[in-house]
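Supplementary Text 2. Reproducibility record for the structural model of the 549-residue chain.

All settings were left at their defaults, and a single model was retained for analysis rather than an ensemble. We include the record here because the model underlies the residue-level annotations in Supplementary Table 4.
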Amino acid sequence: MTEDTRPPESQMEQLDAVILGAGFAGLCQLRKLRDDLGLKARIYDKAGGVGGTWYWNRYPGARSDTESFVYEYSFDRQLYEDWRWSDRYPRQPEILRYLEHCADRWNLHPDITLNTTVEKVWWNDDSNRWNVQTDKGDWVSARWVVNGLGLLSAPYTPDIPGIEKFEGRLIHTSRWPDEDIDFSDKRVGVIGVGSTGVQVISELGPKAKDLTVFLRRPQYSVPARHGPLPETEVQAILDDYDNYFEGVRKSATCFGFEESATSFEDVSPEERERIFEKGWEKGGGFAFMFGTFNDIAVNEDANRAAQDFIRKKIGQIVTDPAKAALLQPDDWYARRPLCDPGYFETFNRDNVRIANVKDHPIRDFDGKTIITDEGEFEIDILIFATGFDSVTGNHVRIDFRGRDGIKLRDVWADGPRAYFGLCVPGFPNMFSIYGPPGPFTNQPPAIEWQCQWVAETIAYVNGSTFTTIEATPEAEEAYLNECIEIAESTLFAKLDWWVMGTNIPGKPRAVSFYMGGMGNYIDKLEAATANDYEGFALAGEQQRALQDA
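Retained model, structure tokens:
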């Protein structure tokens, strides 16, 4: 164990709460702890501004694939009424402006420390407080720690043979440089065709001199149907505001659209085709998966029908048969359901080509030449749209130590485990907002609900004679087993992808989400809370008094 070099706690600045991350979760939690509870709280973030993932992901084409009317806070109704999005699926600069506006509106900046990395979060068994050290060498003491670190925020770059010899420019999408790049005379390569890759390719196809997509695993995607959000839709939400957002939170996915109640087997082949066609024309990846039929994620026949429908569309859109064949996936339609602004159409351009690196992997680099078994490709800028060390990446990069010095990275060595994705046994008075394994949903509504639960729980403990709260090992184990059972009943668990942790070499395959729906998640956590915080251990003066009696 590393030598404990902490100064005496009396020499540390005293806070009520430390919050890690200044994205959707961190800003919401600071607002609730500081303004609603009157606590002395502070956010730390390594970024140079607020926004979380929307601060870092500035790549061309970056935008939400969740519709704007549910990709914002709802607890501040006046904010909801005042803010108007320019598009149904807003771009990154607009989302960042929204979060900056929230920080300004609530005057959060005095309690946000930026350009600062938290390196150690150590529990003090003697004082029942957390000691937090930053990269500046400063230590602070806090009774509570709330993690808003994000699931998709620790960049991953694959180890490709010879990459160190590449003399062109390398850029990871999540660390995009803060500058305007003229692509008109550039030969651009893109590695990765997930959500980010699809957006980058769609954006740069018309702009780059040449664009080469190094394609290993093609993706299913449906049109996004970008465009302004009709004022009538916004007004309909405002007219039934509380009921609307209660419905969003109690739905399975929190995406705000009507989730299908129709089973694939209950309708004729002709009706199935009509429903798929309607979903394609309406647009939106999540709406296509969860709004057409209620069993695409669990029924193999329904999933195969969705696969066939999208593959047929790809064949109709892409005019070059060789390109169309390479772009058609052959696995389950159960990864993140993508939507795009013309991704497949981009491959009809003469300046866009595909390097089939599944059958012909990259072998080496020579100057600006990328060498594969298929041929050589001259590239000026190589873009890695290769995603993240997802779910646990940022958590294990910080030295979290709980009771008796137990390390979180050791506890999670075989995969993340936390009661309701919020609390880990042995790490008292610590919560993770949208931590693993939490609900598999649209994030902002789930984040907001969890932040409120955390605030109410902290208020409860602060108003009692208890000192600490943490999950019990038994409750955590039972919850994790439930998450595993639900996940294994879906097609999501049949794939190797970031949700299962398998996009990172050597990372254990693990269930990282509760896939039973947000409504069920809320019901279960509310029931546990009402039952005297069932599954949580509350300790302190009151407990000791009872033991002494």
